[in-house]
Batch of 2 targets.
Target 1
Amino acid sequence: MANQIGIGCKLYYNSGTFGSPTWVLLTGIESCKIGVNWNTAEGVTRASPVVAEEPTTLKLPVTGKILVDHSADYLVLAAAAFAKTLLDIMALDGGSTTNGSEGIRYEGKINQWEEDQGPNNILYRDFAISPCLTSNARQTVTVTSGAPVFSSIA
Amino acid sequence: MPYRIADRGIAVADGVKDLIQAAWTPASPDFALRDYVTEDTLKALFEAGGRQVYVFPAGSRIVRPLARGAGGVTIKLYEHKVSIRGLEFYTGDGRPTKAWIDTRVKFFGQYVHDVLDLEDPASYLLGSLWTETIEVPVWADPDFLLGSKLWWAECEVAFYEKA
């Protein structure tokens, strides 16, 4: 697989059901970042001065910038930001049919939706999405045989 | 349909000419034209008389990608620069008068600079281009005025669009 570059990465939302998703590409994304940030618990014993850390809980934010073009997919995010509605998202480092693409998928809510309206700015929204309370699993994704394959994050 | 940057640059210049023409409504021998200024232009102008405004594409570029887009085609910010020249020979005796020059300077400000300062989305050129910068570096070139009794004004406009 060739080296991955940011411009080729994809962020999708699901317009179908969780079990039978229909992935819609968000075309206005300028940049995006998948955070995999474990909180840790420290374990220290007298046997060693080294501070050992064990992962405990996981923060899994997806942050980025989207062009304010009032397109249909932009408006999906805008509506969800203010209505606090759940979005099923999938962030990949390639296309959803490109074998080897990987990323994460979960149901989350938008908790940041900022717009810098400087007079000379092309307008973007800085957004942040985090997993929300849901019965559906948060998942890692690997595209295999031309389709996303999901694995629950234990 | 792929974005053809040269075709678009020419279309932008055509649009600029149309805007100036619509605001000015020149009567023969005056006219606005989307064409390049050459020595033949000046020769024809000298013979025909009148006031002429020439509009031509000056350059285009991709400023930067804006978004990932779809199908391997990113959404980009494009710049199209357009140059405008205002020309008229003084046909009176002696040197061009201050009042004659002032009239042309005001004309160029009103029907070129002011007409092309587009900031309301409803008035964007060709529906999608806004004025990023607009400059009149020359209202009345002194060398042409003194040497040829020719009023020569220049305006440079940079339009941006997302595509």
Note: Residues 92 and 103 of chain A are 4 Å apart (CA to CA).
Target 2
Amino acid sequence: MTFDMQAILESKRIYRRRLTELPYVEKLKLLDQLRERSEILAASRAQLSNKPAQQQSVGAGQPTRWPAPTD
Amino acid sequence: MWLNQTPTQPAHIVGMALTEIFAAINRMQTDGVIDRYAIGGAVAATLYLEPVATLDVEVFVALQLLPGQLLLSSRPIYDYLTDRGARVEGQYLVIGSWPVQFLPAPSPLVEEAILEARQVDVGGEPVRIFTAEHLAVIALEVGRAKDKARLVQFVEAGVLDALRFDDILSRHGLRDRWRQFEREFFRDRERIHEDENRS
């Protein structure tokens, strides 16, 4: 299996441009969805960190060294 | 209680959408709780760029001292919203599921951004949003890593009016900082400038 990096980067660029060109209302819906997902992730992370240590997977519940930048 | 939530409903129903939050902010303005306002931060940048996950909604408000008042107060905003079901979480007022931060203009640049914000129709709701040029210059002024990344996005997306951008930079004494930023992130553009200056 080969990876055509150029093609991958180009398709990413096209996808990002398509997202940029969406109407603002549609983009806001995406922000709503992204927020909803991050809440679900945060809740499941909190649940994992409440479990006894031996049941946790490696790194679960630990603070991320470099948190993803958000506003 | 137009911000009220029903705890038994699932999150996606309980969570107030951004468009409804804009409507709530406009209602605050109609009711005289806030005067002029404009949306900033990532929610505003999303008007011009691809959507990026964000934790909060930043609402910049022109706060004015009332007669006999010595300090600016955001108390009326908090009282108004908490009376209608919003809850306070640290520096945020949580409306629906979105933390919303009401901020006074911290600099003349942001004051100008509030004044010159553009009005955008969002599903029939008029919303005041910072211009792309002001967002870009504010990102340059603030200068954290994520602000620099956003500024690069603005330039690469080609959404900035160069004259307007340059005018704002000059008015707020940020041309040198922009030159430095260009050198750091856009070496090719900097070479073009040098060639132009030589010829």
Note: DSSP finds two helices and no strands in chain A.
